[in-house]
């Protein structure tokens, strides 16, 4: 690994971990800022990946939609009270394209209810494009392909 | 009919359906009875859409109640629903969720079945070197996959185990047929699936989709973002036995108005505007002004249109305290790219992460968690008064009460309703109900 690549890898890891930590600390309002202005976030059940275009169950194209989603979660939606824990592993740079770096990673999300009981909520893969050209690294795309597509109860907090 | 000496499985507290004992949501023996009396009884169960299996030999695995089935299209285009269980030793035959197969082959001993469920291959049938094999009178025709009756209306496929179930069109009746015809007037294209696993009883979801009363109270998305519809008007309908329900809401497109507050509650404050209103922009699919259409077909199907979202929801019971909700999301075969993009974006509204639907499964889990004890206690269904005019049931619980009356009849808990729709009288459960 060249030092430039090593630097990029470290930057990307840092972004992935920050993403997980903000969600786990319930700092949802900061979540959209991890994306570029027209960034795309999708959650796609793995069984839908064989279709074109694959059907997402959660889809934002742009920070504004993410802001709306967060506001809806805060003000409107009723969902299971829990703490979330996002674990990101197997981070791998797959390639470099003009607008960013293609990254694959594995995620695991646990949910802990208010009685302190933890369950595995979701496992799957992130397929990301990270823009490194701005003042700070941001996601151009983050697609969570969900292995656990039989969603336990519901999906509120982003994966 | 029930006799006095035969206590029903559980005492049914109200003839009008206004009291429902919590134990119908928790007891394993009630769940088992439902599998026999309902899912193997005189009802049509939704299994799939024809658009999911368009080509000869296409198949999809599905469920009737908790029984796994294969929904299959034969070479000649005919539809078949087969119990997905080998006639030899009971193994699951088709392990894939969907695909195309000329034969369905059991991996255990390689018994092979045609797309019609006929047994067409038995290895070593004549034995090997004088050992094994079957007797000369072994008849493959007696060892096919168990076949259900199948009927399709406008590409919506139903199956029934019972020879007594009335023809599908008589089972559905108007206005349910019309509701299906409206959404399936053009060939549909399946866009994908959504699934959620709910730790609750399947009938709680049946109630939920017959309950217009909860919408503005549980689901806060519209009110929070100051969205209201001009000209909002609701119309409901049901079949003669009141097993099913269909309701439509008329209205123009969603409009935003600060402080329009469409419910008289402090819970939702309409102070916000959508930062990106593109979520709600789409051309109407229909010219009739209907923006929401929810059709619940007993026992396990909901068909919905909410704005440009179109989906079937298949309620798949797994146990007394668990079901899967399986959404098949579709558009029309002639949708252009922009329309498909609109549908994919509006998928945000519904399903397990739906901005306007995620609350439903949570409400159900909240009930299931609280009713673990006190099964003889009842839920209370009198909102809107005890009238029976389902067309006027715009903010009431009459439609849910009708559902429970029909359910209790099928389950032998109360006199059966709508028996004239079946070609034979409903089976009596006398003698089975020896539980005290």
Low-confidence stretches of chain A: none
What's the overall geometry of chain B? globular
What would you say the CATH architecture of the largest domain in chain B is?
A: Alpha-Beta Complex
Kindly provide the name of the CATH class of the largest domain in chain B: Alpha Beta
How many strand units of chain A?
7
How much helix, percentage-wise, in residues of chain A? 10-25%
What is the CATH third-level topology name of the largest domain in chain B?
Naphthalene 1,2-dioxygenase Alpha Subunit, Chain A, domain 1
Radius of gyration of chain A: 15 Å
Based on CA atoms alone, the radius of gyration of chain B comes out at: 23 Å
- What's the helical proportion of residues of chain B? 10-25%
The description of the largest β-sheet of chain B is: 7 strands, antiparallel
Count structural domains of chain A.
1
Architecture (CATH level 2) name of chain A: Roll
Structural class of chain B: alpha+beta
Helix tally of chain B equals 9
Shape of chain A: globular
CATH-defined topology of chain A:
Nuclear Transport Factor 2, Chain: A
Would you tell me the structural class of the helices and strands of chain A? alpha+beta
Average pLDDT over all residues of chain A: 96
Number of helices of chain A: 2
How large is the share of residues in beta strands of chain B? 25-35%
């Amino acid at each position: 690994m060249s030092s430039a690549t090593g630097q990029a890898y470290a930057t990307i890891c840092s972004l992935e971990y920050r993403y997980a930590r903000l969600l786990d600390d319930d700092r949802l309002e900061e979540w959209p800022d991890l994306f570029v202005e027209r960034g795309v976030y999708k959650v796609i059940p793995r069984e839908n990946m064989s279709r074109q275009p694959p059907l997402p169950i959660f889809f934002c194209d742009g920070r504004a939609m993410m802001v709306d989603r967060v506001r809806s979660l805060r003000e409107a939606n009723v969902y299971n009270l829990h703490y979330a824990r996002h674990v990101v592993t197997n981070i791998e740079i797959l390639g470099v394209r003009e607008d960013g770096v293609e990254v694959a990673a594995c995620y695991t999300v646990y949910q802990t209810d208010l009685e302190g009981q933890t369950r595995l909520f979701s496992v799957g893969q992130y397929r990301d494009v990270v823009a490194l050209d701005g003042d700070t690294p941001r996601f151009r795309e983050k697609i969570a392909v969900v292995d656990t597509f039989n969603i336990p109860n519901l999906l509120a907090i982003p994966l | 009919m029930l006799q006095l000496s035969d206590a029903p499985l559980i005492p049914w507290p109200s003839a009008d359906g206004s009291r429902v004992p919590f134990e119908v949501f928790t007891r394993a023996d009630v769940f088992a009875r439902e599998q026999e009396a309902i899912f193997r009884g005189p009802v049509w169960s939704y299994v799939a859409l024809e658009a999911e299996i368009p080509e000869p030999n296409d198949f999809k695995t599905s469920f009737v109640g908790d029984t796994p089935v294969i929904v299959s299209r034969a070479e000649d285009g005919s539809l078949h629903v087969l119990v997905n269980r080998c006639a030899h030793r009971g193994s699951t035959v088709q392990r894939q969720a969907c695909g195309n197969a000329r034969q369905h082959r059991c991996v255990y001993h390689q018994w092979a079945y045609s797309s019609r469920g006929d047994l067409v291959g038995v290895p070593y049938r004549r034995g090997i070197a004088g050992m094994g094999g079957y007797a000369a009178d072994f008849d493959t025709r007696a060892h096919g996959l168990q076949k259900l009756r199948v009927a399709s209306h406008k590409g919506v496929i139903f199956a029934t185990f019972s020879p007594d179930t009335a023809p599908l069109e008589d089972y559905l009746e108007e206005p349910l047929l019309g509701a299906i015809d409206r959404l399936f007037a053009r060939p549909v294209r399946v866009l994908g699936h959504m699934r959620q696993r709910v730790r609750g009883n399947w009938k709680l979801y049946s109630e939920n989709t017959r309950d217009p009363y909860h919408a503005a109270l549980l689901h806060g998305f519209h009110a929070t973002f100051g969205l209201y519809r001009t000209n909002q008007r609701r119309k409901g309908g049901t079949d003669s036995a009141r097993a099913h329900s269909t309701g439509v809401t008329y209205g123009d497109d969603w409009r935003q108005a600060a402080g329009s507050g469409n419910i008289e509650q402090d819970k939702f404050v309409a102070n916000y505007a959508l930062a990106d209103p593109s979520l709600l922009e789409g051309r109407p699919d229909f010219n009739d002004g209907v923006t929401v259409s929810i059709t619940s077909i007993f026992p396990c199907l909901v068909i919905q249109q909410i704005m440009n979202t179109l989906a079937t929801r298949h309620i798949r019971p797994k146990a007394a305290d668990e079901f899967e909700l399986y959404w098949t999301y579709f558009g029309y075969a002639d949708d252009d790219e922009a329309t498909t993009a609109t549908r994919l974006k509006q998928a945000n509204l519904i399903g397990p992460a739906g901005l306007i639907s995620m609350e439903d499964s949570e409400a159900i889990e909240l009930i299931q968690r609280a009713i673990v004890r006190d099964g003889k206690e009842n839920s209370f269904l009198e909102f809107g008064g005890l009238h029976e005019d389902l067309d006027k049931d715009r903010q009431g619980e009459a439609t849910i009460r009708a559902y429970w009356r029909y359910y209790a009849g099928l389950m032998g808990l109360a006199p059966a309703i709508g028996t004239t729709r079946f070609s034979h009288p409903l089976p009596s459960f006398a003698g089975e109900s020896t539980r005290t």
